[in-house]
Putative ligand-gated ion channel (Ornithodoros turicata), 251 residues
Amino acid sequence: IPYLTLIEPHRIWMPNIVISNAKRVSMDNGEYLFTRIYPRGAVHHKKMLTVVATCSMDLKYFPFDEQKCEVIFSSFLYTNDILTFNWSTEHPIDVIEGMQTNSYDLAHVKGEECVITTNAGDHSCVKLVFSLKRESGNMLIRVFIPCALYVFVSWFALWINSKQTLLRLLIPLITLMTMTSNLSSMAGADVPRTPYTKAVDVWTGICVSFVFALLLEVVIVEYLKRNDGDRDEPSPSNEDDKMSGVQQLEI
């Protein structure tokens, strides 16, 4: 007999394994639950679970970020002098190829051993470490490229004749207003809200600054041009003095 399958697995001792960083755990159909005892005393206990775990993410480089999320297995009832967790040396982790989410690609999965320290002592644990790489193509098309095009369109004002003052002002002004009003809709709900600045925020901020700087440049140039025109234009009193001087010379 290669092994015995227990009909009532709750009758044998279990190490009380818990997932330390789980927010919600639900067990699937009972057909995926079994306990086998092998001739050498090894016990194989299988249980299919659906786990929602917490993952602390650093989004400073969003949308070009890479994240590492962990699922930690431990036992809070027994310290490491009674119970020790170790990964199997033969195929400890089975991963379905091509696994991905809407935002991330699964780069690789590895198992690590760890220790959790509490007031009761040190508890042995093992953890699954998922390395995730974000798919940035969607954000490039929806945010990065449109922002660059807005800046490029605003530069058209630099090639317009300086006498076309109204047109030179309208191009960067309309571009700036359209850009700022569409930024939230371009990103949509895909951009997470964080208390710190992300890479996408830096890019959009630079693009808005370029368009605003161009608008400011057009206003300053027009102001200086008008001031120079006022200085070159002779005043009426000077014209009268010149005319009277000419009349005196003719007499």
User: Anything to note?
Assistant: Residues 57 and 79 are 29 Å apart (CA to CA). DSSP finds four helices and nine strands in the chain. Residues 245-251 have pLDDT under 50 and may be disordered. The longest helix spans residues 199-232.
